[in-house]
């Protein structure tokens, strides 16, 4: 079992890696940092301004985590895949930075099993006449081997943001994994980062069309 020095994130149970893309918004550190204690934290900085990147890096150093710097915004799915490549935990949790949580790592260790993809917000969308469940991507966890089996997040077909979590969960259901709504104590400041990211909504309609086509083709 691997441990990470000062912050012993593998102290008990299965190890957990938390992957979070981050762009500016250093004010979120005050709620994010205490929420992720006990995990290996991997921050993928998507081109934050220099002075704010410094604050984010300091947080990662305090957590004894891993900091990956992109000089421009590679967006959500590619950043998650970057983090997945370097994650050491048996379980990997993809987590937004605009959250506040309590006992998150312990709860993840309890609820996530090899066939479960879990998170605190399980929703449904009616797509191409089919009611399809999914776990919202702001907080979603599974074994690292599950994410690898799925090939990670689909960064090839989705431009910009939104619908990537629908795609991920739909592919998981097709492979026989279970989507589980958990009772983790996580508060999400809904769309905080999107509202503060220029162009965040520009490709939502395109992404929706891509997902609808995927569902139609799967039903053939």
Describe the structure.
With 220 residues, this protein is of the alpha/beta class. The protein has a single domain (16-219), classed as Spore Coat Polysaccharide Biosynthesis Protein SpsA, Chain A. It has helices spanning 29-35, 50-62, 76-86, 104-111, 144-150, 164-174, 192-195, 204-219, and strands at 16-22, 40-46, 66-70, 91-95, 99-102, 116-119, 122-127, 130-135, 139-143, 178-181, 185-188. The strands form four sheets. Strands 3-2-1-4-9 form a five-stranded mixed beta sheet, sandwiched between helices. Strands 5-11 form a two-stranded antiparallel sheet. Strands 6-10 form a two-stranded parallel sheet. The N and C termini lie far apart (45 Å).
Short description:
With 220 residues, this protein is of the alpha/beta class. The protein contains 8 helices and 11 strands. It starts with 15 loop residues before the first strand and ends with a helix.
Write the SSE topology.
Elements: E1 16-22, H1 29-35, E2 40-46, H2 50-62, E3 66-70, H3 76-86, E4 91-95, E5 99-102, H4 104-111, E6 116-119, E7 122-127, E8 130-135, E9 139-143, H5 144-150, H6 164-174, E10 178-181, E11 185-188, H7 192-195, H8 204-219
Parallel strand pairs: 1-2, 1-4, 2-3, 6-10
Antiparallel strand pairs: 4-9, 5-11, 7-8
Helix pairs in contact: 6-8
């Amino acid at each position: 079992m691997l441990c990470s020095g000062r912050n012993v994130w593998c102290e008990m149970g299965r190890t957990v890696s938390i992957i979070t893309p981050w762009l500016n918004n250093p004010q979120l550190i005050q709620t994010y940092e205490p929420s992720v204690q006990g995990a290996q934290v991997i921050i993928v900085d998507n081109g934050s301004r220099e002075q704010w990147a410094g604050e984010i890096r300091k947080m990662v150093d305090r957590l004894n985590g891993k900091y990956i710097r992109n000089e421009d915004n590679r967006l959500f799915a590619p950043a998650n895949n970057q983090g997945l490549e370097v994650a050491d935990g048996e379980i990997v949790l993809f987590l937004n930075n605009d959250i506040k949580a309590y006992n998150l790592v312990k709860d993840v260790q309890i609820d996530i099993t090899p066939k479960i993809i879990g998170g605190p917000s399980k929703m449904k969308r009616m797509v191409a006449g089919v009611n399809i469940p999914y776990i919202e991507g702001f907080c979603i966890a599974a074994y690292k081997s599950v994410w690898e089996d799925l090939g990670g997040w689909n960064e090839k077909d989705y431009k910009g943001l939104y619908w990537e979590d629908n795609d991920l969960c739909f592919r998981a259901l097709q492979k026989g994994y279970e989507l589980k709504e958990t009772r983790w104590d996580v508060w999400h400041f809904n769309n905080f980062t999107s509202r503060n990211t220029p162009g965040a909504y520009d490709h939502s309609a395109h992404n929706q069309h891509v997902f609808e086509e995927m569902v139609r083709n799967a039903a053939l």
